[in-house]
Amino acid sequence: MSAATVTAPAVKPGSDDGRIGLRANLRHIGALARRNALQIKQDPQSMMDVLLAPVIFILLFVYVFGGAIFGKGHQDLSVQYMVPGIMAMMGMNIAMAVGSGVNEDFRKGVMDRFRTMPIARSSVLIAKIVVEIGRMLIATAILLGMGFVLGLEIKGGVLALLGAVALATAFGAALMWIFILLGLSVQTPQAVQGMAMLVLMPLQFGSSIFAPPASMPGWLEGFTKVNPLSNLADASRALVNGQGAVAHPVLITLGWTVVITAVTMPLAVAKFRKKT
Amino acid sequence: MTRQTTTTKGGNAVEVRGLVKHFGEVKAVDGVDLDVREGTVLGVLGPNGAGKTTLVRCLSTLLVPDAGRAVVAGFDVVRQPRALRRTIGLTGQYASVDEKLSGWENLYMIGRLLDLSRKDARRRADELLERFSLTEAARRPAAKYSGGMRRRLDLAASMIGRPAVLYLDEPTTGLDPRTRNEVWEEVRRMVSDGATVLLTTQYMEEAEQLADELTVIDRGRVIAEGRVDELKAKTGGRTLQIRPAVPGDLDRMADAIAQAGLDGIAGATADHDGGVVNVPIISDEQLTAVVGVLGQRGFALSGISTHLPSLDEVFLAITGQKTSESTDSGEVPDQSFAEVSA
């Protein structure tokens, strides 16, 4: 070590010119995303939900509900219906895990270090979302692979399929902000889980994900129409199967994505900034 | 405390005036003034719950104070937090590293967050691991580190950005004496490299070992301040304990010291339970004088040691009261000096 260890502050006294440029911001997000990825490597069991959930969901829903809805022997119809729906749902499940992850992270001293460093505070949260999107894409790949094994056909073409994946991912990322906000607001990871379930269950089951809304009572059918998960499921179904209206559910889903992100992201970042 | 509220430029790396932070009814920090001169160590001494950690959190932008002003390295903690974060390092009471990451990955990450290039971040991580004797454990997750290793990693993490001002919040609480000495050694090196350090501690001994000046706080307020030796003089300095080779000599030794008429030595007491004679002293010369007297009188000694006053005794001397939280101050031995065999 040389004696000249202490460097003068890089900024002039009197100003708060500590603004973080875009490139620096991206570098910070990269370094923090690497941290989140390394945490997964250190704790491979945390990937269980991503690796196994799609397999279990697809088998359960295609064989348990699919048979009831489409009749025995109509596995092909069932697969075409269920796989795009599960794709919509998985984003939600993974988003929920972000909430408890953030909550747990906050109990650790390392957050204090991040918050005393010259980085945008949002970068800690954005890095988390970047890695979670990666996890979501892996889960989606497994789901589709499993779908192909069961006879899934991409009738709408590869581009439409990629569109469906992108839409589900964008909506999932928007949901993550809600759960990050929740994770920063409640006391324990368990509380995050509990509250998240209360929101998730009605949204998931009161939707077109598992069963056609036409089979539901009128009030519930009405609810499914505004439920963003229904619209996402409808959109991805239309894209994967190449039939049915695409523009309407896609626009509704994108609308929800934008509104949710615009409202919850600033709230989450502000909460993160103020958290003591 | 009354003091001028004008900001004196040059010389002070940290200036705090009338800082207040309340949590509801709890007045965690209740009007604190303090200065840390550039390149020196200020020890903030106080019992648990005195407001030390809240003070550090205010000065490191983790908390926004309710009132008052604090300027660190020329930056106002409230108005210029972003600029300030470029010049400070914090090592908290609880290690602020990511336990799932290896030591190397922790340091590399922090280097990247401080805008070092990949190459520089790698080099700095290697360099600091080496310096803090962690090279062998570099690739192991920090969760597998011992308490002392984790604290060293934490210090290394705080050093990556070469901060001008370092906050060490109870850096040795909960460490065994050997590890504690290692941490002290590192702190001294940081200071010799030119860093300004604000150190909080519950232990008089740590303050004496590391700090140039001391601020004693209790219940969110400064109750005493000054150079360490001034404060020590105020609190009666040290106690010299002398163990005779022949236990029966205790009373005769105490008498001999009391009657020798040594400068500044009021008396000596024989502690029959402990088998030692206690002599309050304030200087090393007095230590030599006392031992000299005993030598002249032909007493055989088997051991001498000196003890710093504990935090409790300091508080008693300053305020005439016990500490507001004096229950667990026995965590680290208040016996400060290794026994010197006579």
TrEMBL record, chain A:
Q: Which UniProt keyword terms apply here?
A: Antibiotic resistance, Cell membrane, Membrane, Transmembrane, Transmembrane helix, Transport
**Pfam families given for it?**
ABC2_membrane (PF01061)
Q: What is its main location?
A: membrane
Going by the entry's taxonomy, the superkingdom of the source organism is recorded as Bacteria
GO MF annotation terms: ABC-type transporter activity
GO BP, sorted A to Z: response to antibiotic
Compartments reported by the entry: Cell membrane; Membrane
* Lipid bilayer topology: Multi-pass membrane protein
Query: What residues form the membrane-spanning segments?
Result: 50-70, 82-103, 124-152, 158-184, 191-211, 246-270
**Domain ABC transmembrane type-2, chain residue ranges per copy:** 45-275
Q: Which GO terms describe its cellular component?
A: ATP-binding cassette (ABC) transporter complex
Q: Decide whether keyword Membrane is in the record.
A: yes
Family that this chain belongs to: Belongs to the ABC-2 integral membrane protein family.
Protein name in UniProt = Transport permease protein
Species annotation: Streptomyces chattanoogensis
From TrEMBL, chain B:
Q: Which domain of life is it from?
A: Bacteria
Which Gene Ontology terms cover its molecular function? Answer: ABC-type xenobiotic transporter activity; ATP binding; ATP hydrolysis activity
| Swiss-Prot/TrEMBL GO biological process terms | daunorubicin transport; doxorubicin transport; response to antibiotic
Enzyme Commission designation = 7.6.2.2
Q: How does it sit in the membrane?
A: Peripheral membrane protein
Q: What class of enzyme is it?
A: translocase
Organism listed in the record: Streptomyces chattanoogensis
- Map out region (Disordered) in residue numbers: 322-342
Which named protein is this? ABC-type xenobiotic transporter
Subcellular localization is given as: Cell membrane
Q: Keywords, A to Z?
A: Antibiotic resistance, ATP-binding, Cell membrane, Membrane, Nucleotide-binding, Translocase, Transport
